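Need the bound structure for zinc ion, inputs here:
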Amino acid sequence: MAGEICCKIDVHSVTKYFPSPGISFLQPPPHGPETSRFSVPNAVDDQSNLSSNEQAASKHLKDIHMSGCLMEDFLTAARENTEKNLETCGVLGAFLKDGTFYVTTLIIPKQEATSNSTHPSQSCFMSSIDLHTQYTYQVMVPEAVGIVMAPTDHSRKCGIFRLSDPDGMSILRECHETGFHTHRETSNGSPIYEDSTNIIFNPNLRLEIFDLREVVPPL
Ligand SMILES: [Zn+2]
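Answer from helper R.:
Posting the output first, comments after.
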């Protein structure tokens, strides 16, 4: 991710709650040759190494374009928490146009930061709580992804994940546990979640960040 493209980012200080005119205003998506697919660290991105099932599963998913600055900007917003070993949560907003999703909004809601799930200080993985959160989004939008950033994990600092479908999705659908717990293996031994293969980093795509932690509620 090149630093110079970050100058295109508009960071808004939000002064009121939803609906925000900033969120409802979306520029037409850019089209250009400078996009690049998200490559998975420590993994082979050669599609030929995917099983035919995985290829079939990834083929029916729409592509998701993301700003090249998304990860860095989120880490910047999270830095204060990360230094205290606290987790920071953000929600991505996207719009759908011509069969492609464009992620143009990062919302950092008001939150009580906890160190319970320890992503800032440990490795890049999806906890059981993350998996249940991911399920609630993915059951509505099959393309929904969960981004995990673990800045102190030297082997892998970030992952863009989704539940495997149908195996991981059925395990989460049937699980009614809360808190941290373990999930049973899938029937065929495949992973419960996997790297998303339909992510394209688009340096021309703008990103708006709404950090609601700084909002003073109206009287
Ligand atoms: Zn569960």
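Comments: The first helix runs from residue 21 to 24. The beta strands are 10-12, 36-37, 64-67, 91-97, 100-108, 146-149, 158-163, 193-195, 199-202, 208-211.
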